[in-house]
Give the backbone structure.
Amino acid sequence: MSTHEEIQIGPNPCLECGGEYGEHAAGCSLAASRGSAEESELRNELKGVREMLRRECVDWAEDHTYAQNVAKRVGVPEKEVEGDSYGVPAIQDLIDMIAERIPPNVGSERPAVGKL
Ligand SMILES: [Zn+2]
């Protein structure tokens, strides 16, 4: 293992200056080494992962709101749809609530759910 690989994000102290979490004391010769490049690469990767996660949350919120609106339209009480301070129903719960409002259509090819 080269000294460059000793510099990493984490508590592992730098072998030269003893700095932790990728921080180096002023004048540490390892601060500007490849380790720093790897750190900035990791930081960029982390930024990308955060952005991906943020988009996933936005997508979930849109799908959730859509399911809530459909549930309200088919007559599920507002209180059930919105949940309370203990939590909101998951998308799966909302689908179950909607399904409960759909009459069974045994034998028919297409379920007559009506215009939602
Ligand atoms: Zn150092």
Q: What stands out?
A: DSSP finds three helices and no strands in the chain. The pocket of zinc ion is lined by residues 14, 16-17, 19, 24, 28, 30-31 (CB under 6 Å). Helices lie at 34-73, 78-82, 91-100.
